[in-house]
Amino acid sequence: MNTLTVSVVTPDGPVLEDTFEMVSCKAESGELGILPGHIPLVAPLSISAVRLKGPNPQRIAVSGGFLEVRPDKVTILAQSAERPDEIDVERARAAKERAERRLQAKQDEIDFRRAEHALKRALNRLDVVENR
Ligand code: ATP
Fold it and tell me: Alpha-carbon distance 105 to 114, whole Å?
């Protein structure tokens, strides 16, 4: 067993299904490197980049969600997931600026948290594009 089937699914449908040699991602508990044969695991993901390694590597920006690991398969369920070429840089920059303005304004805690998450999503998208 030298490869893993990786499936990335969002509410809009499947984003990717292919085989890779390794999955690197950021769970809320820390960085995970998953190789074929990994013990079964379910973990919440951070707003972060998922790196799929192999002959045809991929990088995907995910806005949180869940990771399910089985020895031969990794499933990522995320609210959104984009490859670098799918990311609209202007939109992410605008979202970043909007979130930064909201964080500077005096607001209640719920709106502050919402802006913090929006800022994280925008920075993550810009990071995934820049490192493509
Ligand atoms: P925005 O404020 O620009 O809508 P957002 O972070 O609030 O950004 P999400 O709620 O995470 O957006 O995503 C909503 C949908 O829009 C998802 O399908 C996501 O893939 C897509 N999306 C959001 N931002 C971008 C972007 N910069 N480029 C491409 N797709 C994006």
Answer: 13
Tokens of 109: 């805690």
> Per the confidence metrics, is the pTM higher than 0.85?
yes
Please, what CATH class does the domain formed by 88-130 belong to?
mainly alpha
For the segment(s) 4-84, the CATH number from 2.30.30.40, 2.40.50.140, 2.60.15.10, 1.10.1740.10 is 2.60.15.10
* pLDDT one-digit tens code per residue, 38-97: 999 999 999 999 999 999 999 999 999 999 999 999 999 999 999 999 999 999 999 999
Output the ligand 1 site: residues, CB below 6 A: 12, 63, 80, 82, 86-88, 91-92, 95, 118, 121, 125
CA of 91 to the centre of ligand 1 (A): 8
Cα angle value 14/76/47 (rounded, 5°):
110
Taking the C-alpha atoms of residue 111 and residue 96, their distance in angstroms, rounded to an integer, is: 15
Q: Which atom from ligand 1 is nearest to the alpha carbon of 117?
A: 6
